[in-house]
Specification:
The protein has about 525 residues and is α+β, with helices and mostly antiparallel strands. It is about 20% helix and about 20% strand. The termini are far apart. About 55% of the residues are buried.
Amino acid sequence: MADETTTYDYLIIGGGTAGSVLAARLSEDPASRVCVVEGGPSDVGDDRILKLRNWINLLGGEFDYGYTTEEQPRGNSHILHSRARVLGGCSSHNTLISFLPFPQDLDEWVASGCEGWGPETILPYRSRLQNTIVPVGAADRNPIAQDFVTAATSRLGVPVVEDFNARPFTDGAGFFSLAYDPQTNNRSSASVAYLHPILDRPNLTLRLETWAYRLLRDEEGRFTRVQVRNPDGSVSILEAEAEVLLCAGAIDTPRLLMLSGIGPADQLRDLGIEVRADLPGIGENLLDHPESVMVWETSGPLPPNSAMDSDAGLFLRRDAAGGPRPDLMFHFYQVPFTVNTERLGYPVPEHGVCMTPNVPRARSIGRMWLRSADPAVKPALDFRYFTDPEGHDERTIVDGLRIAREVAATAPLSDWLLREVAPGPDVQSDADLSEYGRRAAHTVYHPAGTCRMGAEDDPMAVVDPELRLRGHDGLRIVDASIFPTMPTINPMVTVLLAAERAADLIMARPAPGAAGTEGAHQ
């Protein structure tokens, strides 16, 4: 039996990257009662979360919802999609690699019907970001990562990039910018930056370990009520007098909508769910950044310093027709990341490094759906990795594996390396590299696109450019599920910018204007 309804002005479902921003911005008005519903615990004072370098130990653990992947005929069917169950969401769980979106990424959004989301509107919001975003600190710059940058730039003729956020770039290698404090290795996650300083605001309520599983209509037919399961197992109904802001991420946002009868009508009927809004685009357009991995054994242990063991990267543009953006990316791991190669039978070196060729603008598009009307049953995720008809994604991985070998063979990086462990020097043909590259492929945990934004006449758009649920008042979506296309680079900052933009849309405030599109983060 549900408890008495508790009312707020704004209900934010999901205390993650976007939800933290919205909670801070909307509660700036002391007259606004803001409630955040977060399924996980607080991150305050928990060094397992707050120390950035511990991220790899969070995967598959108690702070991870751990969504499985449908069988991938051309990819890796064993990928576990980590989604964070903790305040701050995936910004409390990931590596905090922080890139501004490229202007062309946002131009694509406008071209797909997202008026008001161009670079001239969105990029100035960088001046509002409260996170500390800086290039990897000098003390964290491991010598082998430095030698990777030197080898990549000398072998491939690309520039060293000192700050990837200083200006848009076409190619280059360098140390990433991270949202962290180089002195302490503490995260500057969305929760640390936006929520920790304001936890004592009397108009802000955090309901932690509280799981939202159904949206309900109010007397006027608006989706402003949310049924939640409390930490003690009891059920409550929360109501928003102004709006519900759905910020649960690209998997749990569409999952909650569909459990509430909002989504593709035929699919919902087949599960016995009453259809309350037929929106066929919910769950479609599932995007990701797939990447593969090459592993080398090093001649001995590496120096111990690092920010988070994947501190440097490389970007290349192979096809100039794609415009002034890279179309191949590499993370350089200072640890042997062997979760997929070990399953394929490759040995695990005691000391090693990896390069991970990544597909920045993958053309394979998947979908997700409910398996059951039972909220406890996890949804089905089918990313359809490497299924694009032109073979672009597969080609990108094969090219990347070959280029990784070139860099590994170049001094000074080559001086550290003993042997190539996976796939090994015998794997040479395009066909064999493709087979290995796809089977060893992984995700960098960037699901997006499942409630995409679009124009009013786009039948598959789920939200309009004001982020309002199509055809319904009282509910907006603010997270990576709204992305119509995937940003070229790690998307966390794009989510932060979208949330800052959403706060202005909700409060009918103007955007910050054209100032601040150049220069570094504050």
